[in-house]
């Protein structure tokens, strides 16, 4: 008898559970934006660094922390860009990506900037072989490239 009751209720319960799982994400509050950097324009003796994170499926759950001169200045999610104003001179930039379980890092890029705007593009993940689990990310890396530099004259700031 108990089995007959269970067999009659199971399809209804299964539909309710599946519907609940599907709708669970619809009621989440909007997330606060990550640190997208400076909102001011560079002044005399300063330059602008822009970092664009590619919008890619592979690695999309990772947060990209952009360090300039060994100090985290930006945190970017998938597809975001950030801006940092720095004094003119030589700087080093790199990106560390993490989701709490794995950490990936780009190579350090040193560059000299003088009253310019320079753009770096980050986000292409490389790994040796197929990724079947989190352990496979140990040999993965992130590519970051210099997307170009333009002189600032007050009107060229993006």
CATH topology of one domain: Immunoglobulin-like
CATH C-level category of one domain: Mainly Beta
Q: How far is it from the N-terminal to the C-terminal residue, by CA?
A: 72 Å
Helix amount, in percent?
Answer: 10-25%
Could you tell me the mean pLDDT? 74
Tell me the strand percentage band: 35-45%
The unreliable regions are 22-34
Q: Write the element-wise H/E pattern from the N-terminal end onward.
A: HEEEEEEEEE
Q: Indicate the structural class.
A: mainly beta
Describe this structure as you would to a colleague:
The protein is mainly β and 158 residues long. It has one helix at residues 2-23, and strands spanning 46-53, 63-68, 71-76, 81-87, 89-98, 103-105, 109-113, 116-126, 141-151. The protein has a domain at 46-151: Sandwich (Immunoglobulin-like). Strands 2, 3, 5, 6 and 7 form a 5-stranded antiparallel beta sheet that branches. The termini are far apart. The model is unreliable at 22-34 (pLDDT under 50).
Topology, element by element:
Layout: H1 2-23, E1 46-53, E2 63-68, E3 71-76, E4 81-87, E5 89-98, E6 103-105, E7 109-113, E8 116-126, E9 141-151
Parallel strand pairs: 1-8
Antiparallel strand pairs: 1-4, 2-3, 2-5, 5-6, 5-7, 8-9
């Amino acid at each position: 008898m108990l089995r007959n009751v269970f067999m009659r209720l199971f399809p209804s319960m299964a539909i309710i559970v599946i519907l609940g799982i599907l709708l669970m994400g619809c009621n989440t509050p909007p997330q606060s934006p990550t640190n997208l950097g400076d909102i001011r324009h560079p002044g005399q003796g300063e330059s602008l660094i822009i970092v664009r994170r590619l919008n890619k499926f592979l690695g999309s759950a990772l947060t990209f922390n952009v360090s300039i001169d060994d100090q985290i200045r930006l945190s970017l999610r998938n597809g975001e860009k950030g801006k940092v104003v720095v004094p003119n001179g030589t700087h080093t930039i790199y990106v560390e990506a993490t989701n709490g379980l794995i950490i990936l890092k780009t190579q350090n890029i040193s560059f000299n900037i003088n009253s310019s705007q320079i753009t770096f593009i980050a986000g292409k993940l490389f790994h040796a072989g197929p990724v079947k689990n989190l352990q496979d990310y140990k040999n993965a890396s992130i590519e970051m490239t210099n997307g170009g530099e333009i002189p600032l004259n007050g009107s060229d700031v993006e």
